[in-house]
Structure prediction request, 964 residues.
Amino acid sequence: MNEYENPWFHGLKWAYLLLVVLTLMAPVLYVMYISFNANGFGANEYVFTLEWYGLIFSDELLIGALRWTLMLAIVVTLVAVPMALLAAKYYKAADNKLFPVFLLLAPLFVPPDILGSALLVSFKNLNAVFIWIGDGLGTSMFDSWFRLSFLTATIGLIIYTIPYSFVVILITMGRYRKEQTEAARACGASGWRAFWDIEFPQIRAGVFSASAFTVILVFNEYTRTSLLKGGFDTFTTVLISQMLNTGMSPQSYAMSAMISFVAIAAIGGIIILTLIRAEALARIARGKAEPVMS
Amino acid sequence: MTFQTPPAVEVRNLAKHYGDFVALKNVNVTIAAGEYFVLLGPSGGGKTTLLRTIGGFQKPTSGDVFLHGKSVGHLPPDKRPTTMVFQAYALFPHMNVTQNVGYGLKVAGLPKAQIADKVAHALDQVGLTKFAQRKPHELSGGQQQRVQLARAIVLDRDILLLDEPLAALDAQLRKDMCLELKHLQEKVGITFIHVTHNQEEAMTVADRIALIANGDLVEVGRARDIYRAPEKSFTASFVGENNVLKGKVSDANGVSVTVDVAGAKLQVAKRDLPVSTGQNVTLSIRSECVALETVNDSNAPTDGLSMLGAYDESVYLGLTTSHLVRLPDGTEMVSRIIADADDTLPVNGAPVRLRWKPTDIRLHVE
Amino acid sequence: MVSSPTNVTNGVRPVGSMQTPLHERLALWAFRAPLIFMVLFFAIPMAMTVVFSVFERTMFWMEPGFTLTAYENFFFSARLGNFLNSMKYSLISVAICFVIGFPISVFVRKSIPQVAQHRVVLLFILPFMVSEIIRVFALRPVLQRNGLMNTALTNMGIIDEPITALLYTHTSVVIGEVMSFLPFIIFSGFLAMEAVPKFIFEVCDDLGVGPWRRFKDVILPLAAPGIFAGSVFIFVNGLGVALLPNILGGAGAVNAGLIATQAISALDFPLAMAVSAIMMATLMTLLWIGHKLFDLTKILTPLS
Prediction:
């Protein structure tokens, strides 16, 4: 903060920033608010209850959808985050950075419905081609490879989430000095060992953040999932069909609210934890010898 | 060094290209076991590239590196008998000093007790026993570099590479650490190869110095020889403060050569160099070997070991004072004299004579 | 990690060629795997939209052929008008997002201590913790005739009659777009402001440059690549996210995304592919212009 700046003006800017955050959060808070109303959405009377949260687990449609969503989230995270990590390392070492950057960030710019449609038609055609090859060879083993299924939904979601993981990991890697890897190599560690012992502990926070982010994105994604999934329902497809037909059930509000509670707690936890750790480190550093190089 | 022991390092026809940029062109150098060898040169000259190629951090474009007589060109750094100390940022920030120093031993799979012993000994050698539990960011720059040293010597490898290890330190600390490095090398007795752009640092530690510039190995020699008797004019211009004069040979018959420089005929020892009349050559004289004389009116003909010029200005440097003199052709020459500053200086533009001993001027043919 | 092939010079044997061990070559391919995956399942499908868009439509699917029917269906119908209209409103959303969001990026970079900056920016990912569909859907009760907004405005005495134009119109779609995409201009603005060193503000103060000139002459040119990327993101998503007009829009609020998904529901796959191809062409043109103007790789330079 500029020391000559009017503190009131500075405060005003902060107030504006928080107001924007609050406005963006308003729908979320509203859903939370509704989730505790015994009379559900749109009722004139508000009676606080936790009933709907209890009912989530007896709503088989919701629980079934949740199970699929969770599986998708886990598989996508397990594949996409390591891939983003590899891609980030490739990007760091690459001479020509334009190609990897373009390929890894372009999915951000392709709207969900367009990406979903393009992949849907590609998979359907690929499936037809595979069946045709199978027929030619007299085997049916290729028939189900690219039929719309868990696999196709997973591929679509990996493409959707990779850019976010890539950027998050790249940001944490920015602080890592490659001299440390070289020093580890000079100490006799193999390339893999140097990565695992030296680099990974320092970018762990980024990898975990990317994982958390990927899980949340998969949980909340509707368009790509609904276009590419097979016969199963996920959390968001259940919500949409409720919305467009009978209106969301109170359990769905409760479920949404619960997911956001968990997610906000996770992000809030990360923020607070890093804050505390940074403070603690700074205090130790201040207490001991003066650091000359970081 | 006997016939049976191959040299610690032998570099043959080594070249490294980055696209169109040539970082090293056809370098050959041999370093004996137990030697403190310094690669000295301006930044961007290729000395770090050479060191990193020896260490296995870069693959050469062509040529080969032999360590103890064995080709290691195909080996990654962790499979070579070398270890390295980096300029900075190379300590593992999430480990404390003990863990940093013990890391290589842990990788090698040594038992814990043995690691602890060796680490303690290494920390003792670099004087950091008290700091064993600190994290790198709690250490000063000099301490951090000592940790790097300990981490390297604890491995008992026989070649230690140092990449500008003192560049990030301030001048006084650098001087102290230089001597420490020298003593440490004498104590452990392994080969040190040290890259620096600082000639004082190089002179302090080196048994031998290799001068590297523009991707070429310019000259190799003992520190004293490099300073006193440089072969190449580049060496003369880079090491010490030399006056480098360009001239044309007017007489090359006999043990000494006569060279025309800015209207004066200078005598210089031929040293069996291949020179012929009319050739363009370079002469060098270290500035501290040049004496300054005021000239009255007797513009006596030169004796081949002095020149006339116009006094320009003086620069007081504490221990010495540099007197700048402009030659008739515009070239500037420097005479550096241990300062007795109260002497009255010649006025600006006054004619002066610069004089030197016959052994102090050297001829360079390139 | 990634080494370029060594070339042979002067007939001297290159050292690197001494047969790379198998695991090293495998590792080399592992680093390329993500890119190969992206080419196979992203770049190729996106490029194939052009091919599929000229296929013949059949009852439930399509078959190889060459016809421009899909493009005729797009360009000679109400769809083109809707598409151009959604471009206009998308641009309005970009402008609103920029005006609201970019000052926040500048403020965070300029006035908040370095260590806290990332955490403040992290605040803006909190809305993502809830599915976009819920956030968009929750706007309905806020914007409807007897909703939160109208009630509040009436109670404050600002309006007498409830504003009906708030929901199921282009306005509501723009509001939805701003609510959904605002964080992205803040993120990209934040990255872009990395290109504006902090001392610039001090230099400007020293030279007596006012806030407007400072913004126009210094910040804007330096931060341009990031601002451009954020704007393209919002613009293209405004065109392509079907959810927003679907839930908030009324008659005529139809964007490219909605045309595509409607075509898929109607089993008119070539039309969906034509729309995708047109969107890809739009996006590529924008990115190409941006790259020519500002070199978009600069956005990531602070990270590499």
Q: What stands out?
A: The radius of gyration of chain A is 24 Å. The CA atoms of residues 56 and 251 of chain A lie 5 Å apart. Residues 288-294 of chain A have pLDDT under 50 and may be disordered.
